[in-house]
Amino acid sequence: MRPGKRNKKLADDARPLRAWKQFHRDQLAEALVGLHRDVMGRLMEQLKARRSARELVAFIESIDWTQIDTNTRMVAVHEINTAITKLREHADPLTPIFDPLPGQPENAFRIIRKIITDSAKAGDPGAGRIPGK
Q1: Model pTM?
Q2: Which of 85, 87, 83, 73 has the alpha carbon at shortest distance from 27?
Q3: C-alpha 55: how far from its chain's center?
Q4: Tens place of pLDDT for every residue, the chain, 133 residues?
Q5: Which residues contact 126 (CB under 8 A, 6 or more apart)?
């Protein structure tokens, strides 16, 4: 492949990734000024502080996620996943994603995701429904 074509292909391949990242930045910006901005602001502070996994799980457990809308919950899960992945990459660049095998203790992200998604099942009568239907 010629260098010009290779550069065009790389630029074309990068476009969806940039759009995806921009989408998530926009979603976070909306969540930080939305109805649940206090919860999201505190969450972002927790993630920036990079405290222990136990402290993060305790913080997540302290929130009544049934009162948080689905979009904001999904933004929270994405931001938590991103922060934990960055920590894992820093600690061990070869295994940034490492989920436990069956029978092993759950990791912090899986515990947190379960807390947040279970709240959707328990407290959000519209969870899983298509808006407008």
Answers
A1: 0.78
A2: 73
A3: 17
A4: 666 777 777 777 788 889 999 999 999 999 999 999 999 999 999 999 988 889 999 999 999 999 999 999 999 999 999 998 888 888 777 776 778 889 999 999 999 999 999 987 776 544 444 344 3
A5: 70
Residues 107, 78: Cα–Cα separation, whole Å = 16
Task: Write the secondary structure of the chain as one string of H (helix), E (strand) and C (coil).
Answer: CCHHHHHHHHHHHHHHHHHHHHHHHHHHHHHHHCCCHHHHHHHHHHHHHCCCHHHHHHHHHCCCHHHCCHHHHHHHHHHHHHHHHHHHHHHCCCCCCCCCCCCCCCCHHHHHHHHHHHHHHHHCCCCCCCCCC
Angle between helical axes of 37-49 and 70-91 (0-180°, round to 10): 0
Q: Which of 117, 118, 98 is nearest to 108 (CA)?
A: 98
